Amino acid sequence: MATVVSDTGVGPLLRRWRERRRLSQLELALRAESSSRHISFVETGRSRPSEEMVLRLAEHLEVPVRDRNALLLAAGYAPRYPESALDAPELETLREGIGRLLRGYEPYPALVVDGSYTVVAANRALERLLAGLPEHLLAPPANAMRITLHPEGLAPRIRNLRAWRGHLVEQMERQIAFGRSESLRALHAEVTGYPLPPERPDEEPAEEPYAYFALPLRIEHDGRVLSFVSSISTFNTPLDVTVAELAIETMLPADPATAEYLRTLSD
């Protein structure tokens, strides 16, 4: 995925990030140990920031690693962060660690996705949950959003589809608001265009007040309804674009019946 650089320069890009974070020039200046006057000059193009200043502002604005490279390029500097292929030798330790984590989480489902929700790894518990789905959804490069929301995917099995779909769509929209991924925008347009299946008599309404600590995914599997809550983890202070965009999603049983059923499957 290529880094896109705006032709309007680093100043307007930094201003957009500051406005997205809802910071004033003074607040950003205090955090970055600068002055509001200098921040103003950088944003208007009257002053060219040093490479160190670009990185410092990007850090305090919590700019994603990919977009930090774009800021550096727009300021006339070389990108700082590499974008390694996931199968590159230098990421072997990472791959092994992810594999151990996924296996260790069994019998509960877990997967790893990239910034466009392409599935890069999954454990056997998730594969069991996806059994019976058509090959065109599961064949690499499989996409987690497409698997979940496609009419031939998990969507017909999800008892609270409208609530869960709304959660996933909002999640994508938040990411789109803070990034410029064209692949993510295309995926959002695709999945929001999927027709919703007719509402079933047993479908749980979107406004249902669930007796859980988080919105559950309520999904049918082999004649029973399983309940999960989802947790997403990312890597702290990544220095590689690929690693920065990986997310590990673990699905925790939301009730004792689901936990017990999954344990019986792994016996």
TrEMBL record:
<dbReference type="GO" id="GO:0003677">
    <property type="term" value="F:DNA binding"/>
</dbReference>
<dbReference type="Pfam" id="PF17765">
    <property type="entry name" value="MLTR_LBD"/>
</dbReference>
<dbReference type="Pfam" id="PF13560">
    <property type="entry name" value="HTH_31"/>
</dbReference>
<dbReference type="InterPro" id="IPR041413">
    <property type="entry name" value="MLTR_LBD"/>
</dbReference>
<dbReference type="InterPro" id="IPR010982">
    <property type="entry name" value="Lambda_DNA-bd_dom_sf"/>
</dbReference>
<feature type="domain" description="HTH cro/C1-type">
    <location>
        <begin position="14"/>
        <end position="68"/>
    </location>
</feature>
<dbReference type="InterPro" id="IPR001387">
    <property type="entry name" value="Cro/C1-type_HTH"/>
</dbReference>
<protein>
    <submittedName>
        <fullName>Transcriptional regulator</fullName>
    </submittedName>
</protein>
